[in-house]
Amino acid sequence: MTVASLEDPTPEAALEFIEAEMAADAMITIVGECIVDYTGRTDSFLPAGERLVVLKPDGTLLVHRMEKRTPVNWQPPGCIHQPAVEDGVLTVQSTRRDPEEVVDIEFRTVLQVSAMRLADGRELDLVGTEEDLRQRILADPTLVEDGFTPQDTERWNVAGPADIYGEDAAGRPVIVELKRRRVGPDAVSQLKRYVDEFVRDTGHEDVRGIVVAESLTENAKALADREGLEFIPLAPPEDSVTGTTATLDEFGD
Amino acid sequence: MTVASLEDPTPEAALEFIEAEMAADAMITIVGECIVDYTGRTDSFLPAGERLVVLKPDGTLLVHRMEKRTPVNWQPPGCIHQPAVEDGVLTVQSTRRDPEEVVDIEFRTVLQVSAMRLADGRELDLVGTEEDLRQRILADPTLVEDGFTPQDTERWNVAGPADIYGEDAAGRPVIVELKRRRVGPDAVSQLKRYVDEFVRDTGHEDVRGIVVAESLTENAKALADREGLEFIPLAPPEDSVTGTTATLDEFGD
DNA sequence: CATTTGATGTCGGAT
DNA sequence: ATCCGACGTCAAATG
Known about the structure:
homodimer
C-alpha cells in the first residue's frame, strides 16, 4: 500500500484529493491551521491553531494537538464526514445521529493532506485483563480462600452481574468483586450493591462480599469495614515486567 | 509552519529524519507495516499490519488503525520515545516510569514519515459540562426545588465530595448528585454512599439525597426508590442543536 | 504524591 | 436498541 500526499495544496486541490480518497475508503490526514466547532452532548469551540486531523473510513474523526493522548476534538465511528470548499476555505463537517452531534472544521491553511489504505487484518491480543484474572481464580479458587467453590458460571444469574459467585467451606454464599489494580470506594460500593440485591432477591442474609484486588485505598478499606465486606489482596501472576533483575539463585538451577 | 516528509525511506533515512525532528520538538507521524508489543499494566501483542503511528513531543504515542476512535496501542504523555535501527529495521521504543510500561514498535515497512511543529496557543472552550450544570443550579436553586438553598459553595467539607449541599424549605439537609445525562445504578450508588457518610459523620438521619439528571434507567430508579433517594429530571438549557429547521417566522424579522 | 471523580469518555457484551 | 460495567481508561482538581 502506498501513501498519497499533497503539500500546501489549494483548498480546491485538497478537496478534490480528499473526495477521491474518501470514495476509495482511504484514511485521510490533514495538517493545517483550523477552527473546530462542536455541538452535541456538550458544545465546544477551539480557536484557530495548527492541528493534525484524521478522518477514518469508519466515520471516526480525530483532531490532535501537539500534546495529550486524548484528541482535543473528535467524533466516534459511524459519523458522516463531508468535506467542502466554502468561500475558498476547506471545511470538513462530521455529523452523527443519536445523539445528534456535529463537528465543523474550517481550515485557514492546509500544509499537508495524505491518504492511505492500510492493510491490517490481525487482532490485538491483550493479556492480563479482569477476565483473565477471573479465569485464574476459577482455575484455582484457593486464591480467594481455602474451600471456596465457584458455582456454575451459568447459574451466576443468582448474584446478578457479580464477577464470581460461589460458596465458602461452610456453604455460605459468596459474591466476589474482582479488580486488577488498587481500587477505591467505587468498587467497594459496587460490591455492596450486588450484595444488597442478592439479599433482597434471595433472602439469604448470610452472604459474604469479597473484594479481590491488588490493594484498597484507605477510604475504600474503611468503607469495606463499615459494610462488613472483606478484602483479599491478589498480586498479578509473577511474570510482571517490574524490572527487578533475576537473583543469582535463579541461574543456579 | 511546514510539514517535512519522506516517502518510502530506507530505515536509516527514516531514523536520521526522526532523530533530527524529535530533537527539534516536532510531532512525528509514521505510516507503515509494524508489529507492536506492549508490556505494563497488562500485556498485548499486535501482529504485523499497516498503521499510522504518532509520536508527540510531550511523550505521547498513538498507534491508529483504519477503525475506531481509540488507538490500538498507545503511551500517555511523559514517555520517552527512542527510535533506532536494529538489524536493518526501524524500531521505536516508548518507555514510561510508574507504572513501568514499554511499547515496542518494529516497522517492516515505512511508507511515509512526516514531521511537524504545530503552533497552537489557544485553549478549548467547552460548555455544558457538569460544572456548568452546577453553576446553573447555584444561580437558580429552584431548578432543584422551591425553597432549596445551597450552602457554602466553598469547601463542602460537611457533605464530602457531594456536587451540591444545601437545605430544603423545611431546613432538612440535602445532598445533590448531578449528572448531565441519563444515569444508571452507579450514580445512585454514589449518592447513597455520600448520604451514608453524611449520616455517619454528622448524625443527621433526616438528610435527603437527590439525583438531578436528565433521566434514570429503570434499575437506577428502582435502586433510588429502595434507598429512599429522590430524582429530579433536568433537561439541558434550551439551546440544543436538535436540528429542527428554523421557522419561517424567524426569517420574517 | 495519592485519591477521587468527571468525561462529548469509548467499547464490548448481554438482555 | 438499551443497559451495564471494564478500560493499559485519560485528565483535572483536591488534600
